[in-house]
Amino acid sequence: MLKIKTPKSGKAKREIEKRAPKLVESGKKTLILQGTKTSNVLNAVLAEIYHLKKDSAVRYTRKNENIRPFESGGETSLEFFSLKTDCSIFVFGSHSKKRPDNLVIGRTYDHHIYDLVEVGVENFKSMESFTYDKKLAPKVGSKPFIAFIGEGFESVDELKHLKEVLLELLRGEVVENLNLAGLDHAYICTAVSSNRVFFTHCAMRLKKSGTIVPRMELVEVGPSMDLVVRRHRLPNDSVRKEAMKTAKEQPKKKVKNVSQDVIQGKVGKIYVPDQQVGSVALPNKAKGLKRERREAKMKHETNDRAPKKQKENSE
Q1: Where does the record place Basic and acidic residues bias (predicted)?
Q2: How far is 19 from 235, CA to CA, in rounded Å?
Q3: Residue 293 placed within a domain
C-alpha cells in the first residue's frame, strides 16, 4: 500500500490547488537547464532565453550528468525537475564533439516527456552585439508577435514539429483580448531549407503614415541564430489522444426573470406586490394628529354640556 501524504499547512494546500487540473489552464512555465558540458555560446543562448522569458521561467545553472532526453532512462531527472518546478516546457543545453552547441526543446504531459526536438545553434548573435535605442527594448510581460515564414513549416515534418514547440515556448499565456499598444516585439522564424531555420528577435516601432493606421517598422534587437534540426521525437498516439482531451464546460445556471433581447440586450423582470394602504401603520407621535384629536374631543364635550344647561333653565 502506498502512503498518501496530505498537506498540513495552508501554503502547501494552496500550492497543490494551483497545480490541480483546471478548465482554463494558466500560462506554461519553462525550465532551463544544462548538461555536464557546455560552451560559451550555449551558455549565452540559455541566458538570453531566460532573459526573454524571465517572468515565467526557472533556470538551473548546475551541471546535470544523468539527463539524456532521447535515451530510455535518461529522462528521470528531467521529469523530477519538471514536477518540482511545475514546468511543462524545458530547454536543455549540452555540448559534445558529435553534437556541438546542442539544444533540446521539449514538452511534458503530466510531468512525463511528451515530445522532443533537438537543434544545433549556429551563427549566434547576442543582444549586446546590436545597437539600437534602449527605449525600444521590449517590456517584461508584454505579448509577442510570432511570424513563421516559409513553405517548409507546412510541408516538412521536422519543421512542422519545430513550429509547434517554438510556438509553445515563445507565446506565453493565452489570452482572448489583446491591447495593440502593448504589442512591442516580434519573433521572426524563417525556413531557409528543409532542416534550417533563421530565428531573430525584433522590436516594433510605430511611424507616421499620414493615415489613422501607423506604419510598422521592425528593429532587430537580438538574439539571432540559425537552428539546425538534428533529431525529433513525436508523441505516441495514445499519449497525444489523452493530452488533447478537453473538459466539457459546465452548463450555466438559468437566472430567473432574466432574458436576452437582440435590441435591448439583457432584460430583467421585477415583481412588485400591491400596496395595501389601509394596513400601513402610522407613527404614534405625529403632532398634527394629536391636535386634530384634541379639537375633536373639545367639540364633543361642548355638545354634551349644552342640553344640560337648557334643562336647568327650564326648571
Answers
A1: 292-315
A2: 23
A3: no
